Amino acid sequence: SAVISQKPSRDICQRGTSLTIQCQVDSQVTMMFWYRQQPGQSLTLIATANQGSEATYESGFVIDKFPISRPNLTFSTLTVSNMSPEDSSIYLCSVAQGGSSTEAFFGQGTRLTVV
Amino acid sequence: ILNVEQSPQSLHVQEGDSTNFTCSFPSSNFYALHWYRWETAKSPEALFVMTLNGDEKKKGRISATLNTKEGYSYLYIKGSQPEDSATYLCAFNDRGSTLGRLYFGRGTQLTVWP
């Protein structure tokens, strides 16, 4: 299993500003996943972050809006840039168990409100 | 984008009631089906990972079944308790995607009244 510490747990931000969310894993993992849950919607993948390469973004998400860093195998950040009220969501990082297992582990989530 | 549907969206039951939720997912290219329990301000907690058609899994008062041919899974809670109140998420892996990449339903929000 993996334990993930995600910070901050919540924040209220002014529109036009940026927020960086951090995830620290207690073990080395190859891939980390960043999800977003807008109100009333499902958790949706923003991007997959591999160490040593650029993140792979899903359709509808771009690097300029959601830059991701992955400096080593235990840490990643997601920045929500130039925020608008539509960015108000829960953001969640996740890692896979590894090997052939599909079990995933999650951070505690970041509840972001943009005013 | 793969659609995962969950119903009902929310459920309110009395303590002691038994309840069940439904998850439907694409039946083609199936790899695994997950159930998570998610309480506010906590990490989603894995309940079950199921991979085989006909799988039935049980953990205490909670159990789940899987039908990969028709693309649905049921989660059952027997004798609901107030501490069962949470959002229950269903998530799907398909064979074509990166291992660990999940497609989620919107969840079923369960409230158990004492």
Topology of this structure?
The complex is a heterodimer of chains A (115) and B (114).
Chain A: E1 4-7, E2 10-13, E3 19-25, E4 31-37, E5 44-50, E6 56-57, E7 68-72, E8 75-80, E9 89-98, E10 101-106, E11 110-114
Parallel strand pairs in A: 2-11
Antiparallel strand pairs in A: 1-3, 3-8, 4-5, 4-9, 5-6, 7-8, 9-10, 9-11
Chain B: E1 5-7, E2 10-14, E3 19-24, E4 30-38, E5 45-50, E6 56-59, E7 62-67, E8 72-77, E9 86-94, E10 103-104, E11 108-113
Parallel strand pairs in B: 2-11
Antiparallel strand pairs in B: 1-3, 3-8, 4-5, 4-9, 6-7, 7-8, 9-10, 9-11
Summarize the structure in words.
Chain A has 115 residues and is mainly beta. In chain A, 0% of the residues lie in helices and 55% in strands. Chain A has strands spanning 4-7, 10-13, 19-25, 31-37, 44-50, 56-57, 68-72, 75-80, 89-98, 101-106, 110-114. In chain A, strands 2, 4, 5, 6, 9, 10 and 11 form a 7-stranded mixed β-sheet that branches. In chain A, strands 1-3-8-7 form a 4-stranded antiparallel β-sheet, with no helix packed on it. In chain A, a hairpin with a 2-residue loop joins strand 9 and strand 10. The N and C termini of chain B lie far apart (40 Å). In chain B, the strands form 2 sheets. In chain B, strands 2, 4, 5, 9, 10 and 11 form a 6-stranded mixed β-sheet that branches. Chain B has a 5-stranded antiparallel β-sheet with strand order 1-3-8-7-6, with no helix packed on it. Chain B has strands spanning 5-7, 10-14, 19-24, 30-38, 45-50, 56-59, 62-67, 72-77, 86-94, 103-104, 108-113. Classes of the chains: A mainly beta (115), B mainly beta (114). At the A-B interface, strand 4, strand 5, strand 9 and strand 10 of A face strand 4 and strand 9 of B.
